[in-house]
Amino acid sequence: EGRLSSAPLEQAFELALQRGWLITVGENEALEPLIACRHTVLLEKLCIEQMRQGQGQLQPLLASDAPAIHARQADARLTQGQKAAIELLLTSSDRACAVQGIAGAGKTTALKAIQGCCVAQGFEPLVLADTGNAKNQAEQVSGMVAMTLAQFLTSVETLLAENPEQAQKDYGKHQLMILDGAPRKRLSASG
After folding, report:
1. CB < 8 Å & 24+ apart, contacts of 35-41
2. Which helix (H) or strand (E) is 150 found in, with range?
3. Which residues contact 88 (CB under 8 A, 6 or more apart)?
4. Does the global pTM surpass 0.90?
5. Strands 145-148 and 124-129
6. Average pLDDT over residues 103-117
């Protein structure tokens, strides 16, 4: 009583596999198939390709031997993971860098150290977050300007339609955009 049969769910799952909506992407340690949504895998491949095309395309904000990098490495308030993330983001010549960590690991806190370096180099950092709460936390913790991803996309779309030159000025050169949270969750097939 009160129990549902799993048969309809199993049938829907099998149908999705037959139609190619779900695909096998490998096996786990127990040799069980790993299943993913075909569209998620395609998005992941597109993201990887975009990241590959962006490798080595920009001048790093700072050289790896810059005094600001040494100062961050000596900062006892930062964890080794935060120091590594800060150095990666500030010294990379890639268009996109990814920093991954569990909630509470200190990713947003590391933004505060990045903010000072960006401003000193003439860059305007902008944090894009998935929710209003995440946006508010990023602003509060880092001191950076932050927007939700939805606010940013709406703003850019409107600005591009009305004044492309201003869009280039506001969001083009000398703009470091940091995606905090949601994009990683939405675009990663493997977590």
Report:
1. 36/189, 37/189, 40/189, 41/189
2. helix 149-162
3. 97, 99
4. no
5. parallel
6. 81
